Amino acid sequence: MKVDIKIDEQYQEPLAVIYTAELSDEVNSAVKKISETADDIITAFREDSAEILEPNEIYRIYAEGQKVLAVTDKGIFQIRMRLYQLEERLGNQKFARISHSEIINLKKTAHFDLSIAGTILVKMKNGESTYVSRRYVAKIKEILGI
What we know:
The protein contains three helices and ten strands; from the N terminus they run H-E-E-E-E-E-H-E-E-E-E-E-H. The protein is an alpha+beta fold and 146 residues long. The protein has a single domain, classed as CATH 2.40.50.1020.
């Protein structure tokens, strides 16, 4: 496989383009490797330090004011991305949008309380609770197979 790298300041985020006559195992392997690398990197900030967060350690990501925050066992971190960008990046992980301002890690949920009419209470494994907004109830029920 030939590889060509071009440095261009107009690209703020790397863009990979593969030209090929046909899909092969080599091409599929390259696409998988590139995708895995990009999806696993979430840079988060706390005070004056930056830290790489693994998606599996994040409980929830939410917007508060003009900030996007991620909750982990290590604390709350600020992420310098928008929620829709994180939702796209974490799409192949087990994350789901539950409201206009929040995404949760489905693997970090303890249970869903469906007893409240029109909404769903989500209890996270770290003890926090949050709610699925009415707009996203049908989507969450579909994900859960309810």
